[in-house]
């Protein structure tokens, strides 16, 4: 393993923002990860863990050590799958279905690595990672100790977890409880219509195909069109406020969740007329209002100006403050409306 100094991260984040790492390395084994963490400790460097760069915003150059997790490995143990943090998430989903293990199909085509998935508690089409995660292993950078967390200890919430609140942990492995029976969650309208139109039965393969088709239509491929997918969280309103909101805006898209109603942030942004709105080289996607696209050589100040306009317009119109979904680095740039 080599630790490099002053490395560009422009090709290592899917928004293609130019930023430089003071120190950078890739790790392919747990031993290399421990070696990198020890280097950071000895040099009093802050650590940032990087997967495939699909859910981050690099607001500036990064002091400290950037560790890119490339640790591979997948082991099947009956209906439990153990996957290393450096594995590609979508590849894992496809491999479990091919192996006759089901439960991850609705999470197909979500970009990123296995190690990044618990940080955001990724979710789509009626399923969240927390519904399937049995436990995970993580290295505690300050002590170099490997710890195991059960589902409850991960403190999962909507697009949140213990590991999103703290950079002290590097997730090295997740254990997922799957099933040999495909229950098939097809309640999302797009999935049901995809299967019906093609006269497909409910199976792991057909749900993966449906979800992949829907995501490809709505969300541009970050390998071709620089973006981080959904840029804002869907706000959740308590039942009383949600009912009042629905009376004022009868066509609002909302879903029942624990504690109230989840509103479509895309609907809010679209309703205030910001689809296609641009600042410099950044633009709100015409296809999906939750997506912000870098049309090439976009600068951080342009992106943050656009974010501010979206948040302020939604707040002025609806009294709702949108939260940014991707993590912003360095964290001194975290912004509010």
Quick structural summary:
Among the domains are: 4-69, Uridine Diphospho-n-acetylenolpyruvylglucosamine Reductase, domain 2 (2-Layer Sandwich); 78-135 and 172-177, Uridine Diphospho-n-acetylenolpyruvylglucosamine Reductase, domain 3 (2-Layer Sandwich); 236-333, Alpha-Beta Complex (Uridine Diphospho-n-acetylenolpyruvylglucosamine Reductase, domain 1), CATH 3.90.78. It is 27% helix and 25% strand.
**Total DSSP E strands:** 19
- Cα-atom radius of gyration: 20 Å
Structural class: alpha+beta
Q: Would you tell me which CATH topology of the domain at 236-333 applies?
A: Uridine Diphospho-n-acetylenolpyruvylglucosamine Reductase, domain 1
Mean pLDDT: 94
From the spread of the alpha carbons, the general shape counts as globular
* CATH H-level superfamily of the domain at 236-333: UDP-N-acetylenolpyruvoylglucosamine reductase, C-terminal domain
How far is the first residue's CA from the last residue's CA?
Answer: 42 Å
Describe the structure.
This protein has helices at residues 30-42, 89-98, 117-120, 162-165, 189-197, 204-218, 239-248, 265-271, 300-318; strands at residues 4-8, 20-27, 47-50, 56-58, 62-69, 74-77, 80-84, 123-124, 127-128, 133-140, 145-150, 169-177, 236-237, 254-257, 260-263, 278-279, 282-284, 292-294, 327-329. It is globular and about 60 Å long. The longest helix has 19 residues, at 300-318. The termini are far apart. With 337 residues, the protein is α+β, with helices and mostly antiparallel strands. It has a 5-stranded antiparallel beta sheet, covered by helices on one side. A 4-stranded mixed beta sheet has the order 1-2-5-3, with helices on one face. A 3-stranded antiparallel beta sheet has the order 13-15-14. Strand 17 (282-284) and strand 18 form a beta hairpin. Helix content is 27%, strand content 25%. Among the domains are: 4-69, Uridine Diphospho-n-acetylenolpyruvylglucosamine Reductase, domain 2 (2-Layer Sandwich), CATH 3.30.43.10; 78-135 and 172-177, 2-Layer Sandwich (Uridine Diphospho-n-acetylenolpyruvylglucosamine Reductase, domain 3); 236-333, Uridine Diphospho-n-acetylenolpyruvylglucosamine Reductase, domain 1 (Alpha-Beta Complex), CATH 3.90.78.10. Helix 5 (189-197) packs across helix 6. The chain contains 9 helices and 19 strands.
């Amino acid at each position: 393993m080599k630790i490099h100094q002053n490395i560009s991260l422009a090709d290592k984040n899917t928004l293609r923002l130019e930023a430089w790492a003071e120190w950078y390395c890739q790790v392919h084994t747990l031993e290399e990860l421990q070696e990198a963490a020890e280097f950071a400790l000895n040099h009093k460097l802050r650590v940032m863990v990087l997967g495939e760069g699909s859910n981050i915003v690099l607001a500036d150059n990064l002091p400290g050590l950037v560790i890119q997790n490339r640790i591979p490995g997948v082991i099947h143990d009956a209906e439990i799958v153990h996957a290393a943090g450096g594995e590609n998430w979508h590849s894992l989903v496809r491999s479990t279905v091919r192996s006759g293990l089901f439960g991850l199909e609705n999470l197909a085509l979500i970009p990123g690595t296995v190690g990044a998935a618990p940080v955001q508690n990724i979710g789509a089409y009626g399923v969240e990672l927390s519904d399937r995660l049995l436990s995970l292993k993580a290295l505690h950078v300050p002590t170099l100790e490997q710890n195991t967390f059960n589902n409850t200890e991960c403190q999962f919430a909507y697009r949140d977890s213990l590991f999103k609140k703290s950079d002290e942990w590097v997730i090295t492995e997740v254990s997922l409880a799957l099933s040999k029976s495909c229950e098939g969650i097809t309640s999302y309208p797009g999935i049901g219509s995809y299967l019906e139109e093609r006269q497909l039965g409910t199976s792991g393969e057909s749900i993966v195909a449906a979800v992949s088709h829907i995501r490809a239509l709505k969300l541009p491929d970050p390998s071709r069109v620089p973006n981080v997918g959904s840029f804002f969280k869907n706000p959740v309103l308590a039942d009383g406020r949600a009912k009042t909101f629905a009376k004022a805006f009868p066509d609002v898209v909302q879903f029942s969740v624990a504690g109230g109603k989840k509103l479509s942030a895309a609907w809010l942004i679209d309703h205030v007329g910001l689809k296609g709105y641009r600042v410099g080289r950044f633009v709100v996607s015409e296809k999906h209002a939750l997506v912000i696209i870098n049309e090439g050589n976009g600068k951080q100040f342009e992106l943050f100006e656009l974010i501010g306009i979206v948040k302020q317009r939604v707040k002025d119109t609806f009294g709702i403050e949108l939260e940014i979904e991707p993590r912003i680095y360095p964290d001194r740039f975290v912004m509010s409306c």
